[in-house]
Amino acid sequence: MLYTVPRVFIRDVVVNTDLVGDEGHIYYSVKSNLNGSYQDLQATVKIIDKNGSVVATDTTAGADLKGVVLVKNVKPWWPYLMHEEPGYLYNMEVTLEFKSNEATKPLGEIHDVYRMNVGVRTLEWTNTSLLINGRPIYFRGFGRHEDSDIRGKGLDYALLTKDFNLLKWVGANAYRTSHYPYSEESMQFADEHGIMIIDECPSVDTENYSQILLEKHKASIEQLIHRDRNHPSVIMWSIANEPRTALFAADAYFEAVAKYTRRLDPTRPVTAAIAVGVNDDRAAKHLDIISFNRYNGWYSNAGKLNMITNRVIEEAQAWNSKHNKPVLMSEYGADTMEGLHMLPAYIWSEDYQSQVFSRHFRAFDNLRKQHFFIGEFVWNFADFKTAQTYTRVGGNKKGIFTRNRQPKAAAYLLRQRYHALAEELDKSTLPDDLFLYTAEDKQSNRGTKFEL
């Protein structure tokens, strides 16, 4: 896309928000390409609600264009299923102009206007919880990839619409941008639909730690934060996926990356998807929230379903015991060939994937009662293409949807769980079609529901 700007234009806008009672505080900073060289530059900020009404304004002038807009009776931004109107966004209109004087006449009557959506919410975390607008969050999510049949990797508006419809159908409230920045359009969709994002930089299997790599890593984090910091859907920064954190050099390296990330944005917690064991890892102590990837019943102890639940519980407890921080499981799952059914459940069958999920669910519910476990992320939302290898059948098949977005059996199982959790934790209403009718319930005079 090509676009033009005036000779004097808005170069950057930074927004942070707060809630004080029923009043929303939108703190803003506006930078022009003049870098503060003109003292009579002026910025006017208008906040417009979904009905098109201007609900608040503020004006600031001088070299440092900063201020706060106060929105009365504000509608906060809420995640999906936590409120009857999730993902509420205001439109913020920033106008840049000069006060009329002789010094600025050569530049003419210059105006630049920039419009962006703003969600008003608070975000805080403790050693046991992450809270939005003062309410604790429990993540029901996925790892994802920007990949599909026909298009391959890339932006596709129709696919994006389909994916967000499926996310909401299944009752998810979050996903991780594994393992790179996704399109800006996908971030805007997340804002609008109330889907929370763990935003991840492209650091995968990181090793060979060096100063050169550290500078590249910092540059990547800086670009990610600069682009996505104004999105209310972004609630956490992930600084790596499955880095080799057992190496001695990982300690100082990830300490530096985590500190740099917090310096750029102290308003969001820092995490990383850790794959090494709790006793070998050297990076988790530098994080705010512990995320771990583990494939019990697949890469370890394949086929041994009876070992999954206790191993998940024990590892999550070990992470929390060692670091006294909130813990979430950022990846778990099993490859599945769609249409393959086997009884007893056998690896690669749809039945086995459902069994793997069910054993993890038992562990997660046990961990939730211990008040430090804050989320579960299935790997993966949909099947995706990989390099050719004898360990893959047409790519990675861990999706609950096929690569062309058709559901496997586990999609229905996960949908029942995610909506049941939303009903329990967020007081949402269950979809009418969540359970199929099986037999009359004499007490309630309706079809029997299976307990999860």
From TrEMBL:
Family: Belongs to the glycosyl hydrolase 2 family.
E.C. number(s) listed in UniProt: 3.2.1.31
Organism superkingdom: Eukaryota
Keywords assigned by UniProt, alphabetized: Signal
The keyword Magnesium is assigned to this record: no
Gene3D superfamilies assigned to the protein according to its UniProt record, in alphabetical order: Glycosidases, Immunoglobulins
Its biological purpose: Plays an important role in the degradation of dermatan and keratan sulfates.
Keyword match Cell division: no
Official protein name in the record: Beta-glucuronidase
Domain Glycoside hydrolase family 2 immunoglobulin-like beta-sandwich: 8-102
Domain Glycoside hydrolase family 2 catalytic: 126-421
